[in-house]
Amino acid sequence: MFTNKMIVRIAWLQEQVKDKYPDDLILNHLITCTQVSKEVSEVLDCLPWKFERKMETVSREHLLEELVDVFRFYVRLLIIHNVTEKEFQEAFDSKSEIVERRLCNGKSMEECLREEISRKTADNN
């Protein structure tokens, strides 16, 4: 998912942060989490989430820009904590399986999908 160019750019940015707050893991973590929170708020502001506020259109360009900001700060958190791509992939897969089992009442996603396909096939017949 991460291209080398993305990793280089984000690592460079992280070095800039480390220059300001050298070897302070907790401060780097707190600053980045604050930035993530702010950017997620900006994503929310791109969407018509307030029922009393009329928003004619959602600017996909603006939404994408804010999502990129969120992504960059999440990747910075991975860099701050020295998480490798392999570690992240394994943790992602493990957590995904847990969430999928919750959503499928203890079954694997594959079992859940097979049941859904069988149900839809039966409904169409």
Write the layout of secondary structure elements.
Blueprint: H1 4-20, H2 25-45, H3 60-80, H4 85-103, H5 109-124
Helix pairs in contact: 1-3, 2-3
InterPro entries: dUTPase/dCTP_pyrophosphatase
Organism: marine sediment metagenome
Protein name: NTP pyrophosphohydrolase MazG putative catalytic core domain-containing protein
Overview in brief:
This protein is mainly alpha-helical.
What does this structure look like?
- With 125 residues, the chain is mainly α.
- The protein folds into two domains: 1-83, Helix Hairpins, CATH 1.10.287; 85-125, no CATH class.
- It is 75% helix and 0% strand.
- The protein has five helices and no strands.
- Helix 1 (4-20) crosses helix 3 and helix 2 packs antiparallel against helix 3 (60-80).
- The protein starts with a helix and ends with a helix.
- The mean pLDDT is 83.
